[in-house]
Amino acid sequence: MSEPILITRTELVRRAVRLAHIYPLATSDWPGFFDKAIGNPDIAGVFKLDGDSFLVRVENDASAEPPWEQSDQYGVVSAWVRRPRRPGELILNQDRGSFRYYDFRASVRKARKVWGCPNAGHGARKDFERLRAWCQDHWHYIRLIVVPLNFRGEPITELETAIWGIESDAGVYLAEAAQDLARRCWVSLPREMLP
User: Fold this and answer.
1) Given 101, 128, 186, 195, which residue has the most CB atoms within 10 angstroms?
2) pLDDT tens digits, 119-161
3) The pTM is what?
């Protein structure tokens, strides 16, 4: 029986970087990069910020719960049930005879009271469409990872920063979040690495 091969996290990231399709990113390249990178872990981008270089990767956030379980900003959604639709409910999703219903009436009330929405019916309808798009995999939650690169272009994994729970269709916000994470890399510099 052979011994397992242990690879350090640093070496794992270095190997991933060598295997990845690396895209040098200018400001105008961000939207196209995220379109390619979301759902493809072999793609990474390199960007410069304040004279430093950073690697950015995107991973699916498999630990994310459904949107309606994460915050009050979404309407009222049932658990998976096997029953007919009730008045005021819309079919959000279905799978092999089970249904998830969006309670439109309760969501309109929530839109008025909790969201402060002036046109509650319209707000609840938009919310339903957004959640239905999530159920149909038109968007999902992602993890955005930024790693600074040393002068040789190698990742400094000890300074890796990441943020989870970002909506995959967040557009320009993804680039802003990556740049914000890059700024945080240097803030999190361990004391023993300071000159």
Assistant:
1) 101
2) 999 999 999 999 999 999 999 999 999 999 888 888 888 889 9
3) 0.77
Tell me the one-letter amino acid at 90.
L
Question: Token pair 């600074």 is at which residue?
Answer: 148
The 10s digit of each residue's pLDDT in 12-34 is 455 444 444 566 676 667 777 78
Q: How many residues make up the chain in this entry?
A: 195
